[in-house]
Amino acid sequence: MKYQQKDFNEGLRVKIKRTERVLMDFIERVADQYIPVIEEKDLDFEARFEKEGTNPFTPGYTSSLSVGIAEKGGELIDLHVIKIWVCERSLFGVPISKALPGSKITGELLDESIEEVKEEITEYVKEALLG
Fold first, then answer.
1. Buried/exposed 10-40: b ≥16 CB within 10 Å, e otherwise
2. How far apart are CA 125 and CA 27, in angstroms?
């Protein structure tokens, strides 16, 4: 869901932070849950929450979840990334890094509900690890 800078408010900030926190906790639980399968199949599994920036309403701030599965000490088998929030500055729809006259700051929050994202992650991990 896209937000214009005029829509940036404390309610949206709370929603972003809550979504990040809930999904970060969930991804850690999923990783712990599948440790026996990962070890049995001799795979490397990494699930993490990544964030760049400190203020969600500043261009350049991004938060996402990533789940990666690789052969033990080797090649990446699969990577799944879910963007939670992205804030950027753009001019005529093209992302830019500098504040130019006429540029706009927008943010995009994932469209799915937290429950839908949890289901997506669980299905992805099950399919990737259990076939």
1. eebeeebeebbeebbebbeebbeebeeebee
2. 10
The pLDDT, as a whole number, for residue 58 is 97
Question: What pLDDT, on a 0 to 100 scale, did the predictor assign at position 38?
Answer: 87
From CA 130, how far away is CA 42, in angstroms rounded? Answer: 13
Residue 31, pLDDT > 90, answer no
SS3 labels along the chain: CEEEHHHCCHHHHHHHHHHHHHHHHHHHHHHHHCHHHHHHCCEEEEEEEEEECCCCCCCCCEEEEEEEEEECCCCEEEEEEEEEEEEEEEECCEEECCCCCCCEEEEEECCCCHHHHHHHHHHHHHHHHHC
| Both tokens assigned to 1 | 């869901």
Identity of the residue numbered 86: V
pTM of model > 0.85: yes
Query: What are 51-84's pLDDT values in tens digits?
Result: 999 999 999 999 999 999 998 878 888 999 999 9
The length of the chain in residues reads: 131
